[in-house]
Amino acid sequence: MTGKMIICCLLFTLNAAAQGQEATDSISTQESKPNLLVRLHQLQQYLDTKAKAKVDSHYIEVPKKPWRVILRYKENVVDVDYYQSVDIPATNEHSDWNLCFEPPVASSVGFWVGYRGTGFSYSKSLIKNAGRYYSFSSTGAKYGFNFRLRRFNTQDARFMATDLNQETGAETKTDTAFSMPSPVWIRSVYINGYYVFNGRRYSQAAAYNQSVIQRRSAGSFLLGATWYQSSFDYSDIRNFPFMLVGHGIYRAKVHQANIGVGYGYNWVPLRGLVVNVMAMPTVSVYNRVKAYKYDFNYDLSPEEPVDDYGDWNKVTRRWANGKTHKSFFMANKSDPQFDYWEVEPEVIYTMLRLNLDLRLGIAYNWSNFFIGAQAQYNNFNYKSDHCRVNIYDAYARVSFGVRL
After folding, report:
1. DSSP states along 296-320
2. Of 302 and 215, which is predicted with more confidence?
């Protein structure tokens, strides 16, 4: 056999081997695809079986289709009540006042998408400056977890005050709505988790994200824990009058941890329909308030008969006569020589603040569709030596969803 023939035979053999290997790889690839789908199907069956084993099927039904897409319309209300007390030596008065930030009701549309009890939602406000709302939730037979984040600004405010003249004892009350000179920024983060004692027969999720269907009426005690942090900020110097009478505070942050025991009940008057009511009072076990402050070259001291203060020195932070503060009532309106600077923030820890979590949910299921309506009310309050803040956060929403 010549060398040329040997080379041709080798090339033919290698080519045949390569074609055989390609055929084998192709068959292997084709076989792996159905194997992967089979394994995913087996995993889903395992999760479904595990979910059904955790509940009493006479009371709770686990739908066969695990995915859900929900469209939502929500109305959200937030009120921030900021209380202060201040003595005004110039008029010998004591004033208790409440500055209430009242943004308009925030209408929003959004969606929720998830697998079984776990999902993510996003909603966009339909009005200007009402902010965005993000949330994440996960529920099981024995537990529930929710995370909410919102940030917005408002200039809508209401001022209520009771002024007491300490010489005559006369009281003067003020109640007026107005627009803040500069917007107030409000941010809140809400994290809530709960444990269901009667998880085999009662599901909180049946009325709120429809991951399961409540078939018979049942109730349960719940153990809950909440982490809440919020802040309000009106540090723009155009809001100077409110900072001056508010002991220099221009921004406050709160971190608060709460625990509580509540009770929830699912009423099922007819097949597919469930009405849920849940109430949980909580007590704060950690309450930290950090107040950021400005100091000013003016204060609320009595007006003096002679203005011998001279010019303000921004380097030494003193007036020409050596004094550090001048009465606000002596300010020259044309050239007040106004100055301000940051001082050390004040951190205060308090305990045993009482808060409240109330919820109402209604859902109706048919075929692979469902509709629902839910409402939730939360009240958070905290205080420092000079101020007290109450935050009221509530929403109502309607939803329509489909199982996939």
Report:
1. ESEESPPPPSS-----EETTTTEET
2. 215
Higher pLDDT: 53 or 258? It is 258
* Separation between Cα atoms, residue 372 and residue 402, nearest integer Å: 12
Q: 3-state DSSP call for residue 119?
A: strand
404 pLDDT more than 50 = yes
Cα 223 from Cα 219, distance rounded (Å): 13
3-class DSSP state of 366:
strand
Residues 111, 121: contact at Cβ < 8 Å? yes
What is the biggest distance separating any 2 CA atoms in the chain, rounded to whole angstroms?
131
For residue 260, with 0-12 CB atoms within 10 Å meaning exposed, 13-18 middle and 19 or more buried, which class applies? buried
Distant-in-sequence, close-in-space partners of 378: CB < 8 Å, separation ≥ 6:
190, 228, 355, 356, 357, 358, 392, 393, 394
pTM here is 0.73
pLDDT digit string, tens, across residues 329-366? 888 777 789 999 999 998 888 777 788 889 999 999 99
Structure tokens at 331: 């300010």
Tens of pLDDT, residue by residue over 260-285, are 999 999 999 999 999 999 999 999 88
Residue listed under structure tokens 């010489």: 167
Please report where in the chains the tokens 């039904």 appear, as a residue. 61
d(CA 68, CA 65): 8
Q: What is the dihedral of CA 378, 398, 78, 185, to 10 degrees?
A: 120
Please report, as a single letter, which amino acid is at residue 317: R
How do residues 191-212 score in pLDDT, each as one tens digit? 999 999 999 999 999 998 888 9
